[in-house]
Amino acid sequence: MNKSYHAGDRPSFLSSRMQYLRDNYVHPPFDYEQELLEAIRFGDENKALDMLNRINKLEGAVLATYPLRSRKNALIASCTLFTRAIIKGGVDAETAFQLSDTLILEIERMSDVERLNLFEYEMLMQFIATIRREKEVLPYSHIVNLSVHYIREHIFQDLALKGIADHIGVHPSYLSDRFKRETGMSITSFIHAKKVEESKHLLIYTNQSISEIAFLFKFCSQSYYTQIFKKFTGMTPREFRRDNSGK
């Protein structure tokens, strides 16, 4: 990880740190922070929300000259900690960092401190949802369970039957037959369903354009993403965003 200051900046950094302490700003107590991260790691939504509420009742650190920049920096720092927590909880690192990158981009786009304060809770819920999906017990055979976990962990990639079969070490036709028999869906339909489900979070909680979301989930075009989304939800991504805005 790159440091935020260089050796030559150390005197000014220390001066700023001393001024910061004199102004009586405090970082969250270490115990509070650790309890929050443990709650995230184990997918304990109620505990995580309780600890975040406790932390937010304290006076926060000033991390930049301007309030907006300071709040963004604080949320980015939290996002980094939350990301490490879900990786420790068993989430694939690529999945965790992809979520982190998406959330940080959204933080940077915001221009209102109050919206950022709300987004902190939305961000927490996305991390909790991710770790819960990882820990979900699936009622399938070992081969199909491996396939489902692989799809979830690589949901932002261009997934296909052959690549999944190669990863698991079985013949594509065998996996295809077994997967459909146990889940009631073809593996392609299952991939599409999961991509649609994950994309809903971005439609609700971010301002990313529909074309950006389609690209992120590796749909070949916005129109194809819209077609698949409507197949599983009965509405277009634009209609879904409109009906769920403010949630």
UniProtKB/TrEMBL annotation:
UniProt KW keywords: DNA-binding, Transcription, Transcription regulation
Superkingdom, natural source: Bacteria
Keyword DNA-binding: yes
SUPFAM superfamilies: Homeodomain-like (SSF46689)
One Gene Ontology term of the molecular function aspect: DNA-binding transcription factor activity
Keyword Electron transport: no
A Pfam entry, by short name: HTH_18
Chain ranges of the HTH araC/xylS-type domain: 145-243
Protein name: AraC family transcriptional regulator
